[in-house]
Write a structure and sequence with these properties.
Length: 105
């Protein structure tokens, strides 16, 4: 049984976030993608401190689909170095976790 993961990806526009979310669902590599708007990111890039408005994708997938998610995000993303982070779900509703696994088979 494949482990269930949550992936985090930040996007520079709502349009980009929606395009990536739609592609992940259409390709069946993610069961669900939430788009969280209104986040403000602070970071250092090319030696300068930066601040920008971003949209956060919360991607529900499995360990067996993780690399496919990453590959598709890299293909569609505008950033030179997109934030792509995956964390294991420590637990959750068994029905929900089964639904995630079934959705990305």
């Amino acid at each position: 049984m494949s482990r269930v993961l949550v992936g985090w990806v930040t996007c520079g526009s709502q349009r980009e976030a929606r395009r990536i979310a739609q592609a992940l669902i259409e390709q069946r590599v993610a069961a669900c993608v939430n788009i969280v708007s209104g986040i403000e990111s602070h970071y250092r890039w090319e030696g300068r401190q930066e601040r920008s408005r971003e949209w956060l994708l919360m991607i529900k997938t499995t360990g067996t689909r993780m690399r496919e998610v990453e590959k598709l995000v890299r293909k569609l993303h505008s950033y030179q170095v997109p934030e792509i982070i995956f964390v294991n779900m420590a637990g959750g509703s068994v029905d929900y976790l089964d639904w995630v696994r079934d959705s990305v088979k």
